[in-house]
Amino acid sequence: MTTPSAKDISAEWNRNAEARCNQIETGKDISHDKVLLPAILRLAGRLDGMAVLDVGCGCGFLAGRIARRADRVLGIDISERMIEQASSRNQRSKLSFRCISVQALARFNELHFDLCVANMSVMTMPNLMGALRAVRTLLDKSGVFIFSITHPCFWNIYRKDEPSKRFDYWRGHAVTAPFRITLDQKPLPALTTYFHRPLSEYVLSVRRAGFVLEDLVEPKPPRTTSSAYRRVFPFPRFLVMHVRKLDGLNVK
Prior knowledge:
Blueprint: H1 6-25, H2 30-44, E1 51-55, H3 61-67, E2 72-77, H4 80-89, E3 95-99, H5 102-108, E4 113-119, H6 128-138, E5 139-150, H7 155-159, E6 173-177, E7 192-196, H8 199-208, E8 211-217, H9 227-231, E9 238-245
Parallel strand pairs: 1-2, 1-4, 2-3, 4-5
Antiparallel strand pairs: 5-9, 6-7, 8-9
């Protein structure tokens, strides 16, 4: 089976862009609103005066939240339709969007950032090391990268995208499956691809790319969410890493 490319994944999200952004904008994605964005923003801390890059910004709602406090925010995504949705739904003077991969942006080397964030996009990138090294290039001295992913240890137990007898935790591999959320069980128009990687691969890749892991969070839903949602959250669904660029390293 051929591994899906970045071009394939871009095509999936071009088809899903409007439906996905409508889900979030209408408040149907509890995990996005109550679990993931709060965890990322808590780890980010003070944003005043910062230049921030949102990698795989999707609909742009996280970038829009950050732009309320940061000095300059750029959201990038490889899906042209997602960038169109983000641009139309988030209009702030300090906020801009661009259809480009993080690797291509790093090759231009024209911009630098204090903070990079990536909400549920890193696990959709075929080349993990390439993406991490590109983020490092784009960060200023001692810059921070905060990214959320599906939890490698528990996501398939929750989502059941692969039969348990066939699922191989130790082997990194692509998974293409319907995209559903708790309050909207109708799948998005196109199947979506993510890459399962064991937790050790993420930790080692972060180190090899020239970062130090400073914090790791397995966010839980707050008590303000419905009991029905919390009942189906008995173990972590997501993982959020806070890593810092190590200076003086020659990363190849």
